Automatic annotation (TrEMBL):
SUPFAM superfamilies: Band 7/SPFH domain (SSF117892). Its main location: membrane. This is SPFH domain, Band 7 family protein. PANTHER family: PROHIBITIN, PROHIBITIN 1. Keywords: Membrane, Transmembrane, Transmembrane helix. One of its GO terms (cellular component) is membrane. Gene3D superfamilies: Band 7 domain (3.30.479.30). Residues 25-189 form the Band domain. InterPro entries: Band_7, Band_7/SPFH_dom_sf, Prohibitin. It comes from Arenibacter troitsensis. SMART domains: PHB.
Length: 271
């Protein structure tokens, strides 16, 4: 095998060095990510330019690129907090968030890649303790979960907005009370429900009784008015009218005028 010419050796070495430099200089940023450039010899973290976008990039081999997820993310947190009367409550919550893309350099420079543990989670825990401490266990168990969720969101957002983090939502997934307190609340709620049902039955029965009374009163008033209107003269006139109608009948009969009580005719027939 022929030896390589001496002139070829430096060329091969140069080529190898170039390949290594290109590999070291190549940076690929995936979808939903952005890069923060760190210039080793000229100023450190670049904060006065937009972060590097998706795709393939070539940077000087002595510089570095720190890649961040810039899509919405979710972080979960389990906490133990105290209610307004000092009882320990277990709270499961999660946060939807994303770093503010335009301030990604600032976020990296001031908070670093562990900004979730350093900023977001401690703020959520602090806000949750503050908010839950305003409510009783009964309120936490029943009607106030949405209000608690909204208040934790507002208090957390107020702080992390200035820390280059965009908070999209806080979700309170579960509120766990001590077993004895939970049972006591459930008994109380059951008793209240039974009381409401009993009151409803009383109101319904009262309304039904009032309806029957009104109907009976109406009938009594009608009978009283009718009795007051039926004088002897009216009854006599109606008797005469009825007699005349009977007299028109084809059946055999004898009409004796003025022989009945109160002067009404008597009708004698063959039936």
């Amino acid at each position: 095998m022929n030896k390589l010419p001496k002139i070829a050796i430096p060329g091969i070495i140069t080529l190898i060095v170039l390949v290594v430099l290109i590999i070291k200089s190549a940076v690929t940023i995936d979808s939903g990510q952005a890069g923060v450039l760190y210039k080793t010899f000229s100023g450190g973290v670049v904060i006065d330019e937009p972060p590097m976008g998706e795709g393939f990039h070539i940077v000087a081999p002595w510089n570095k690129v720190f890649i961040y997820e810039v899509r919405q993310q979710e972080v979960f947190e389990k906490m133990q907090v105290l209610s307004s009367n000092g009882l320990e409550i277990k709270l499961d919550a999660s946060a939807w968030f994303e770093p503010k893309r335009e301030f990604l350099g600032k976020l990296h420079q001031e908070k670093g890649s562990e900004y979730i543990q350093r900023v977001l989670l401690p703020t959520i825990r602090s806000a949750a303790r503050s908010v839950v401490g305003r409510y009783t266990p009964e309120q936490l168990y029943s009607s106030k979960r949405d209000a608690i969720q909204a208040e934790i969101y507002e208090e957390t957002k107020k702080i992390v907005d200035g820390q280059y983090i965009q908070l999209n939502e806080i979700l309170v997934r579960d509120v766990t009370l001590p077993a004895t307190i939970k049972e006591a609340i459930e008994r109380k709620l059951k008793q209240e429900q039974e009381s409401l049902e009993y009151q409803f039955r009383l109101v319904t029965a009262k309304k039904e009784a009032e309806k029957v009374t009104i109907e009976a009163q109406g009938k009594a008033d009608a009978n009283r008015i009718l009795s007051a209107s039926l004088t002897d003269k009216i009854l006599q006139d109606k008797g005469i009218d009825a007699t005349l109608e009977l007299a028109k009948s084809s059946n055999t009969k004898v009409v004796i005028v003025g022989s009945g009580d109160s002067g009404l005719p008597l009708i004698l027939g063959n039936n």
